[in-house]
Amino acid sequence: MNEHFDVIIIGTGAGGGTLLNRLAPSGKRILVLERGPFLPREKDNWNYHGSFKYYSSEVMFNKDGGEIRPGFSYFVGGNTKVYGAALFRLREKDFESFRHKDGISPEWPIKYRDWEDYYTQAEELYEVHGKAGEDPTEPWRSKEYPHPPISHEPRIKEVFEILKTRGMKPYPAPMGVRINEAMMHLSPCIRCDTCDGYPCLVGAKSDRSERRANRLHGRRGRGFLRRSELVGVAVAFGE
Ligand SMILES: Cc1cc2nc3c(=O)[nH]c(=O)nc-3n(C[C@H](O)[C@H](O)[C@H](O)COP(=O)(O)OP(=O)(O)OC[C@H]3O[C@@H](n4cnc5c(N)ncnc54)[C@H](O)[C@@H]3O)c2cc1C
Ligand code: SF4
């Protein structure tokens, strides 16, 4: 392959897809390599048994030889096609050295304050619904969420109120879903009863990254989406 690209992005999931969104307007020649196809829109998207087919059955092994079945979803959009779209920010202490049950998470070279503006931009891109100040564990933020929190389902509302009367501090999870509760007749999200773990049949999870990849598909221009699995990277060092 003799073609020249300014940027090659491998994978169109949360990471690659978000990067593609940022770089696409830059005019750079971008090649996106994605091993998976577009996820089909079909009734199985919202079917408990049918939806298992969107997960890979591959087996990985941990350092002791134990089996791990990661259940990745290899499609354009990556695991954002099936995720629950609860989009929390990491906490400030997550960037510090932190002891978990299974070991120490090392300190990051960059901190929450370095990420804060990017979180704000990502929340806009992913159309996150939430309310600042409700979650007592949330780190500081420079801006309110771009959209109001999603109202509770009736039973969750009851539980929410009970928890509050018991002195607890429940809060609405920040959700990256394209819902317009003020005008449900125009809302992409219809509040179906499947979401986390299922692809959205009506494409209402905030997957602007995937939509960007969609636009590249089969188009001539400065961006190219190729179905291709990267199996290795060879790096040649010059003199
Ligand atoms: C059921 C489920 C629910 C989840 N719910 C949430 C949630 O509510 N909130 C949250 O924050 N996170 C959630 N997650 C996790 C979240 O989806 C992942 O953390 C996130 O998608 C990871 O982004 P990524 O870009 O690293 O990888 P991925 O999104 O997995 O993207 C990787 C991409 O690379 C492609 N690829 C892989 N290998 C190759 C190769 N060799 N060559 C070319 N392409 C390749 C894949 O096909 C895929 O498109 C959930 C995950 C799952 C499975
Ligand atoms: S319609 Fe709404 S609730 Fe249902 S899967 Fe799509 S985003 Fe989730």
Question: Top keywords for this entry?
Answer:
single chain; 239 residues; alpha/beta; 2 domains; three-stranded parallel beta sheet; two-stranded antiparallel ribbon; binds flavin-adenine dinucleotide; binds iron/sulfur cluster
What is the topology?
Elements: E1 7-10, H1 14-23, E2 30-34, E3 60-61, E4 67-68, E5 98-100, E6 103-105, H2 112-125, E7 128-129, H3 154-165, E8 175-176, H4 208-216, E9 223-227
Parallel strand pairs: 1-2, 2-9
Antiparallel strand pairs: 3-4, 5-6, 7-8
This protein binds flavin-adenine dinucleotide and iron/sulfur cluster.
Residues 10-16, 33-36, 72, 74, 78-80, 82-87, 196-197, 229-230 line the site of flavin-adenine dinucleotide (FAD).
- Mean pLDDT equals 89
| Secondary structural class | alpha/beta
- The first-to-last residue Cα distance is 23 Å
Give the overall silhouette: globular
**Radius of gyration, whole Å:** 20 Å
- Give the tally of structural domains: 2
Helix content: 10-25%
Q: Specify the number of helices.
A: 4
Residues in β-strands, percent = 5-15%
